[in-house]
Amino acid sequence: MNILFATSEAVPFAKSGGLADVAGALSKAVRNRGHACRVVMPLYQSIPTYLHASMKFVTYFNTPLAWRNQYCGVFEANHDGVKYYFLDNEYYFKRSKLYGYFDDAERFAFFSRAVLEMIGRIDFEPDVIHCHDWQTALIPVYLDVFYRLNDKFRPIKTAFTIHNVQYQGNFDYKITQDVLGMPEGAGNILEFGGACNFMKGAVEQCDVLTTVSPTYAGELLEQWYAHGLDKLLQAKKYKLHGILNGIDTKTYDPATDPNIVKNYTTANPAGKAANKIKLQKLLGLEVDPAPMVIGMVTRLVSHKGLDLVKFAFEQLMELPVQLAVLGSGDEEYEKFMREQAKKYPGKVGVHIGFDAVLSHKVYAGADAFLMPSQSEPCGLSQMIAMRYGTLPIVRLTGGLADSVRDFGGEGGNGYTFLTYNADDMLGATARALSDYSDRQLWPQRIKATMQADFSWGRSAVEYIGLYQRLLGIA
User: Fold this and answer.
1) Residues 6 or more apart whose Cβ sits within 8 Å of residue 82
2) Architecture of 2-246+457-471 per CATH?
3) Cβ contacts of 470 within 8 Å, gap of 6 or more
4) H-helix or E-strand containing 158?
5) What architecture (CATH level 2) is domain 269-453?
6) In 133-186, which ranges are continuous DSSP H helix?
7) pLDDT digits over 462-474, tens only?
8) Rounded to two decimals, what is the model's pTM?
9) Tens of pLDDT along 135-165?
């Protein structure tokens, strides 16, 4: 099969969140299983210079977009055996950030149309175009509206993945014709609640719809989680599939990770002790092996469960624990965390911002990892933490429910709670602390956690099966 991933970001070229990890790792995993998989993304100014240097020019063409006819250059590069295409237009993509501009609708409409215009001009004919999130949601729409009568495009199937339904690409409906170029009468494909909704169009037009965990797929049918799309998704339930994301087990490997102070393995996890001391020193925590260090690598926003942490903070501090926090987000929570670090010196260590190297040190140095999320489509941090033998304490939602099983049952690998309630979060933490105090039991818990398989190979097999069924070859 020939699979083309269309994405607005992919590691190592550009990243703002987990989408980049998925695009970079899943494409490689599909390729490693004998299928041709390539990736197309914008040529951003922010792509590191050394990666720019590896690119070579392929071709150029003009892309129609409403009344515009815009230049698009195509560059290519190979990374880890996967070929990447980069679509160049300096007006749209020579900017300091990936997103957050007044004309994001036009920028990613151009990208979506250019992806389709590129087909036939490169040496690759996709059987499936796999589109990711709202930035590529117009590809299934444009394909059906403008290209289906062309023999070259007629057999192409589309998959669309919702990584986070909260971000749908909602814009003023007035842009539908003048900016997006939708023909008169076709605007209803994108109309939703009086607005132009990119994701709604993809949900309507794609051949298969996926999201990033089985539990999240079920949650998307509920009003509480779906951010207004629940009735539409209920109607399209027949084509909705939940496939749990994986992690890059090469990047996140405590046996070889150059970012941690001492490497260790599942068979011999003793090196965690040295990493705990290093983390305590880095974040100004009291250097002491006795307290259980709870790590958090997170966006400091409400849906990550920060309200529970705020509410229960004083009770948490009464326990023999230390808290190591790395993240950024809403000013309210950043200010709160800074205040707690001052209030509890030596017991709370906080780094506001994101530091990739420091994140590895938190994963390796903490004893437990807290994710009390209100919602979590998949979550990668809990999987990474488990890879490093850092036991997760999570609320059972989305991918957290699919990846963490409570030690109170069979095959346990962490500590869970169900209700979005601070007392329940504290209860799960207390159970972890009780096990931590058992010097014979805790090493067994670490090994059980490290043995969990969250490699992309498992996910790739599911996606490949989905593509094959879509093409009628399985």
Assistant:
1) 27, 28, 31, 37, 38, 39
2) 3-Layer(aba) Sandwich (3.40)
3) 128, 157, 159, 207, 208
4) strand 157-162
5) 3-Layer(aba) Sandwich (3.40)
6) 138-142, 175-178
7) 999 999 999 999 6
8) 0.91
9) 999 999 999 999 999 999 999 999 999 999 9
